[in-house]
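Would you mind writing out a protein's amino acid sequence and the numbers that encode its backbone to help me picture the idea?
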Amino acid sequence: MLTFEQLHARVEGAASGLAAEGFTTGDVLSIHMANHPDFFTAMLAAIKLGGTVSPSNPVYTARELRHQITDSGATYALTSAELLPVVSEATRDTAVDKVYVLGSNAAWLDHLAQGTATAMVNPKTHLAVLPYSSGTTGLPKGVMLSHYNITSNICQYSDCPELNTWSADCRVLGVLPFFHIYGMVIVGMCPLYRGIPVVTMSKFEPVAFLTALQDHKITRAYVVPPIVLFMTKHPMVNDYNLSKGGVSAGPVV
C-alpha cells in the first residue's frame, strides 16, 4: 500500500537511482511485467529524466518481446522474477545491457532522492511512451506518444463533464493491463491525477476480483466483456456484498 506522498518520494528516488545507473534523456526503458504499483514508479521516473517507456504484454513469448525491444531501441529493462527467463532470452544480443528485477537488483527503485533534476524537453514533441499495437495486420508497431499526448488524454477523460463523477470516496480497480494504453492512462494515470486510490491486480482471478470489489469498496471498475458476462451470470457473484462501494462499470473495452 502506497500513499500519494510515498509514491512521489518513490518516483523521486527511482529517478535518482536510474540517473545514477546512467539513464538519461532519449534512453528507452522496457517494462515487462504484470500490473504492479511500481509500473508507475518506473514509468514516471524514466519520463522525469527525459526517457521513454515501452511497456509490453507480459504474456509475450521471447520472440515477440525481442521484436519490441529491438524496434523500440530499449537499452534498459525492468521485469519481475517470474518473467525474467523470457526477458533474458529476448534481450540476448540486443542493445539492452541492464535488466532489473523487482525485489532483486532493482535497488534504484528504493534509491534515496538527491534532488534529481527534471530533464528539459519539449512536451509536444518529446517521446514519453512507446506502447505497441496488437499486430493484427503484421508485426506490432510502436505508437509514438508525447508528454502532451498523454496529459491531453488524461485531461480529456478526467475533466469531461459527462465523465467527471470523481469524488473523495472513489476507488478504482486496476485489473486491466497497465501495458495497454487504456489501463495505463484511464485506469492508472487519471485516478493519480485526481487523487483517487487504485487497487492493483496482477491479473483477473474470480475470487480475488470479487473480494477486491467487496473489501476495498470499489466504485469504478474498467473491464472487458468476458468479465461483464462473469458478473452477470456466475452464481458465485451472489456470495459477495458489492453494494457498499456502489460499483459502476467504466467503459467496457
